[in-house]
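Bug report

Summary: structure tokens for Lipid-binding protein differ between web form and batch submission.
Environment: batch mode, default settings.
Steps: 1) Submit the sequence below via batch. 2) Compare with the web form result.

Sequence submitted:
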Amino acid sequence: MKMKKLATLLVLVIAIATAGFASNGKDDKATYSVDTKASKVYWTGKKVAGEHTGYVLIESGKVHVSNNAVTSADIKMDMTSIEVTDLEGEWKDKLVAHLKNDDFFSVDKHAEAEFKITSFENNKVVGDLTIKGITNEVSFPAEVKIEGNELTASGTASIDRTKWDIRYGSGKFFSGLGDNMIKDEFEIKFELKATASEE
């Protein structure tokens, strides 16, 4: 009887040890490639008299996942694709051209922007955003869903454009702007879709 109890106890110990080893041993990693056609980065710029909205296309992107949690990502944005969505015709064309010149994003010199996620914990993204060759750390709340080989992510960051040397119409650097003053803070909203690929 004692031998039977001892054998049962031994089996139980082995089972617990095996379960613990299994949960801690393998690190399930995956890389998700961003679907550039289904993903965009939306922007909102505000001024005293109103606001403008638009988007930028994503050129490429990889999201790295370990044990079903995002560990890092690298998203490249095509700044030549800047679009305005609240205007039409001549006024739209003028604003797009203005956003591309040196007053704003200097697209001829800096055709690409990049966002590298360095950590994602408690639904908070931290990463390095590079615009016009200038890199600053940003953080903002985000939601990531992983279902099978599909990953979706969304989040909105509010950033101070002057940190990336975008000073046009800023009250920090120019006086007497009146209704022409543009707010330094603007919003960037990421909408990503990605599919798992073999590493």
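Above is the batch result. After comparison, the two runs are identical; trailing whitespace caused the diff. Confidence is low (pLDDT under 50) at residues 5-25. The chain has one domain: 27-197.
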